[in-house]
Structure formats: structure tokens, C-alpha cells
Amino acid sequence: MLFSSLQRLVGLVLAIFVFGFSNLVQAESRAALEQSSQAALHSLIAKDAVARELSQRATAVLVFPDVKKAGLIVGGQFGEGVLWRAGKAVGYYNTGGASYGFQAGVQEYGYAMFFMKESALKALDVTQGFEVGVGPSIVVIDQGKGVSHTTTTMQEDVYAFVFDQKGLMAGIGIQGNKITKINK
To answer: Which of 67, 130, 164, 171 is the most exposed place for a label (fewest CB within 10 A)?
Structure first.
């Protein structure tokens, strides 16, 4: 009886998720996406000394200003972002992923990926989608631990910062997300 009730609950949540999640992730116009992405990057750089230093050395920065994540046992996330190189928008991408497991909630967050090497940046467009956690070495900077990093110790391909987390979902990660180039 408990299993049957759980199945119905999961089915209901999936239906709400499939129909409701598409409304949560409405795409922004190109100009609005550039504006929100640039504002998010400037805010991150103003608040975080490590991000500020990395931005000065990075080959390019990919910024997803608003990623939506929702789930109840089955979950998904989606957002759109802009690739910035020398202060100019040079590409548009979406990030998405699905997950299964013990999870419940809805969350919004942003993240920025600082590409430190040209080879890591090239990997972004080589395949039919860049899967975070596969390919170039990516280090997610925890804001509490970021203060211990210096230019001498920071030698990885890509550094990622998660910022502006809002919502009610425990834990956050970008591992397993797929990043795909889009036309805007």
C-alpha cells in the first residue's frame, strides 16, 4: 500500500515537473541574456577576490546567470548562458541535466566557468555538448575555501563558481550537466 501511494506521488510530481518546469525555464532574448550574464559576472567579480583574479587571467568566461533546478526523486535543471572573451559576447550556450535519487525541492542559482587554457575552451565546442566532469579538469571553488587559492596553486583548466543560490534543495553541483552551444 505504501509503495502504491509512493508510485502515485512520483507520477503526480513527474507530471507537474514535465508541464511546470517548461514554464520555469523560458528563454531570455539575446540582449536580456547578455545583460543578466554580464551583471552576474560583474557582481561575482566584485564580491570574490579569487574570481576577480581569475577573470584577469582567463581565456574566456562562460556565465549562466539563472539556472533552475527542480526535483522530487526525478529532477532536472536548465539555464542559458553567454561566453565572454575579452569583454565581448562570443557564444551562447545552455546547460541542463537530469538526475534520479533522493531529492526534493526547487532551486535557482547561477554559475560561472573561467576557462584558463585555450585547450579547455576548444573542448567546449569540439563535441556535440560539453559534459561537466568529462574532459578538461574543472575545479568548483567553494567561496569559503577560495581564499586559500593563489596564482601559484591555481593551475587547472577550468574554475567554476556557483553563486546566488535560492530555494529549498539540499546540495548543489554542476557535475553531470551538459553544456551545448545554441543559436540566439
So the answer is: 171
